[in-house]
């Protein structure tokens, strides 16, 4: 199911970026858009927790992280900053080009997983994929420098 979830997320993000590009292009600032996004996410999250009966376990799950609470905080804060930055990039250029540059994030996932946790998921195929991704980012950037 991981593949279905990941592909579904890509499709949903595609719809989201195209629609957010239109909203930002029409005058909604990236900061206002981000605030709406975060607010809707908070409401949806609380509703999902309540609907699944996990609202009561919410504090226990936070406590269960133990000493790794800092990683939870880093994950949550960087997710918010990343979302805000992509909306700012969309506002400065457009959703298509911003997302084509952002798609390089798996390389940074792999790098930081290695740096922070000494986890390595590289093999021949992932290295070739990484080179193709960075080549694509370079082509998009060089072709749209104006």
Keywords:
globular; mainly alpha; single chain; 146 residues; 2 domains
Question: How does this model look, in words?
Answer:
It is a single chain. This protein is an all-alpha fold and 146 residues long. It has 7 helices and no strands. The chain is globular and about 50 Å long. The mean pLDDT is 93. It folds into 2 domains: 2-95, no CATH class; 103-146, no CATH class.
What is the mean pLDDT? Answer: 93
Q: Shape, please?
A: globular
Question: How much β-strand is present in the residues?
Answer: under 5%
pLDDT < 50 runs, ≥5 residues: none
Round the Cα radius of gyration to an integer and report it: 18 Å
Q: Tell me the domain tally.
A: 2
Quick summary of this structure?
This protein is 81% helix and 0% strand. The chain has 146 residues and is an all-alpha fold.
Topology:
Layout: H1 2-25, H2 30-51, H3 58-64, H4 69-92, H5 95-102, H6 105-117, H7 124-143
Helix pairs in contact: 2-4, 4-5
């Amino acid at each position: 199911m991981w593949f279905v979830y990941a592909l579904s997320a890509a499709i949903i993000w595609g719809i989201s970026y195209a629609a957010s590009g239109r909203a930002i292009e029409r005058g909604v600032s990236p900061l206002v858009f981000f605030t709406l996004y975060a607010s809707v996410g908070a409401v949806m999250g609380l509703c999902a927790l309540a609907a699944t009966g996990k609202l009561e376990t919410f504090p226990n799950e936070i406590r269960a992280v133990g000493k790794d609470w800092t990683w939870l905080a880093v994950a949550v804060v960087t997710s918010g900053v990343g979302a805000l930055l992509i909306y700012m990039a969309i506002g400065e250029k457009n959703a298509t080009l911003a997302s084509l540059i952002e798609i390089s994030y798996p390389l940074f996932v792999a790098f930081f997983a290695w740096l922070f946790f000494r986890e390595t998921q590289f093999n021949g195929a992932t290295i070739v994929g990484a080179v193709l991704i960075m080549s694509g980012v370079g082509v998009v950037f060089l072709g749209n420098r104006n």
